[in-house]
Amino acid sequence: MALANKLAVVTGANCGIGKVIATELARHQAHVVMACRSQARSEPICEEIRASTGNCDVEFRELDLTSLNSIKNFANGLQGRSVHLLINNAGVMAGQREMTADGLETSWQVNAVGPTLLSRLLLSNLFKASQELEGPSGASRIVYVGSMLDKKGNLEDLKAVQDPLKRFASDTEFSAFGSYGTSK
């Protein structure tokens, strides 16, 4: 897919792999939406990417994957716009069991539930973009960035419980690597 003037949303775009992805998309003249929690940390990175690529179409939009309301608000802010590429990159490995205000274990919400909800909420935007594109590369895309730490996860644990999301909220032994690996 040619990226010039295509809208690309990258979660966790203010550092690490997300920053590299956002920079390369901008270098290829995509309109990049950096979907991140912290405006204070993200705006300087936005400026850095604009300066290094010469692409002024790089913007920050607040997205906190620990909040289902934030995810819904983010998606509503893109209502009516074509989204050609969604890169679900953001991730977190909590050192101890932490629960979000939505009642889910933080790693599970940020790494699995949040990106899935965001993808579902942006489906109409992605579909709209696909209708605008022609040729064999005419499909919009959703990309999930995973981790080799998935080997530390244990999906068998999830099969043993009726509600897998509650498994991570239980008082059983917590493993940061296990929770991260299973959720990614």
Automatic annotation (TrEMBL):
<dbReference type="Pfam" id="PF00106">
    <property type="entry name" value="adh_short"/>
</dbReference>
<dbReference type="InterPro" id="IPR002347">
    <property type="entry name" value="SDR_fam"/>
</dbReference>
<keyword id="KW-0560">Oxidoreductase</keyword>
<dbReference type="GO" id="GO:0016491">
    <property type="term" value="F:oxidoreductase activity"/>
</dbReference>
<dbReference type="InterPro" id="IPR036291">
    <property type="entry name" value="NAD(P)-bd_dom_sf"/>
</dbReference>
<protein>
    <submittedName>
        <fullName>Uncharacterized protein</fullName>
    </submittedName>
</protein>
